[in-house]
Design brief:
The chain has 122 residues and is α+β, with helices and mostly antiparallel strands. The protein has 2 domains: 46 residues, no CATH class; 58 residues, no CATH class. The chain contains 6 helices and 9 strands. A 3-stranded antiparallel beta sheet has the order 2-4-3. A two-stranded antiparallel sheet has the order 1-9. A hairpin with a 2-residue loop joins strand 5 and strand 6. The radius of gyration is 15 Å and the shape is globular. The structure holds iron/sulfur cluster (2 copies). One iron/sulfur cluster binds next to helix 1. This is Zinc/iron-chelating domain-containing protein.
Length: 122
């Protein structure tokens, strides 16, 4: 898989054995828009207010998904280790859908390769 403007490619089959490195590890923000908040709450059949209180934290003027610490790793609250995947996959935020083709990584390919085993770059 390639994307215009990026010099690397991505092999999604690497996700099967990776253990969700992009959803776990170091602490970070997983930003969600108001539209995404509504979509995830709907998927979980939760009241939106309850969803926000349970799963979101405020980061400045934005909202991020919370994390849970598992064996010293900061896992996204929706990463399911038993299934090795995202428990809200069909409603996952744009930030997750667009990984690994983020502007941030465009010129930080070594950093990206260290995080994601699916990156192909000569
Ligand atoms: S780090 Fe890369 S290979 Fe691993 S789950 Fe995320 S996208 Fe897939
Ligand atoms: S929402 Fe899903 S894809 Fe996104 S970081 Fe959390 S577990 Fe990973």
């Amino acid at each position: 898989m390639t994307q215009e403007g990026f010099t690397y490619a991505f092999n999604p089959s690497a996700c099967a054995t990776c253990g969700g490195k992009c959803c776990t590890g170091e602490s970070g923000n997983i930003f969600v828009s108001v539209t995404e908040i509504a979509a995830i709450a709907k998927l979980l059949e939760m009241d939106e207010g309850e969803f926000r209180r349970t799963f979101l934290r405020k980061e400045g003027f934005r909202f991020s998904l919370k994390e849970k610490i598992v064996k010293g790793s900061f896992d996204c609250v929706f990463f399911d280790r038993s299934q090795n995947g995202c428990s809200i996959y069909t409603a996952r935020p744009l930030q997750c859908r667009t990984f690994p083709f983020w502007d941030y990584f465009r010129h930080r390919i070594d950093e990206l390769k260290a995080e994601c085993p699916g990156i192909i770059h000569d």
